[in-house]
Task: inverse folding
């Protein structure tokens, strides 16, 4: 089914896929099959290890990588991830209770709290992707 989907795509098609956690999908990709990868990492050793493996696979296939530093509670959290991924473009998404509240209520964060810090940061992810497109 994936092969049929790939064959139906035009050269100017944009597909955004939210893949399962881990690197299984990335290990099966070949060079040229993907342009960009968003790697989400939280400020923990296990998350950084998994993100590092994902970045290695993205680099292997020539994809641009954007790091999303997720659930950042302090400058120390941000610095830890910046130190873990030097020379990588990173967008910081703060730990925002309004996102947790929205999830608990079954609502989209954008609908629940459009002015929330987390929602605004997610908008910065989209902006970063557009900027990567133009470089």
Result:
């Amino acid at each position: 089914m994936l092969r049929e989907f790939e064959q139906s795509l035009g050269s100017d098609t944009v597909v955004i896929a939210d893949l399962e956690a881990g690197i299984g999908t990335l290990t099966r990709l070949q060079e040229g099959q993907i342009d960009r990868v968003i790697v989400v990492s939280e400020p923990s050793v296990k998350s950084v290890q998994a993100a590092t493996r994902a970045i290695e696979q993205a680099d292997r296939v020539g994809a641009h990588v954007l790091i999303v530093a997720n659930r950042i509670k302090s400058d120390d959290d941000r610095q830890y991830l910046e130190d873990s991924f030097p020379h990588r473009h990173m967008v910081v998404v703060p730990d925002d209770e309004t996102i947790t509240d929205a999830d608990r209520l079954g609502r989209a964060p954008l609908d629940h709290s459009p002015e929330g810090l987390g929602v605004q940061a997610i908008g910065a992810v989209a902006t970063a992707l557009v900027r990567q497109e133009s470089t």
Remarks:
- The first strand starts at residue 36 and ends at 41.
- The chain has one domain: 23-133.
- Helices lie at 2-8, 24-27, 45-60, 75-84, 97-105, 109-112, 117-133.
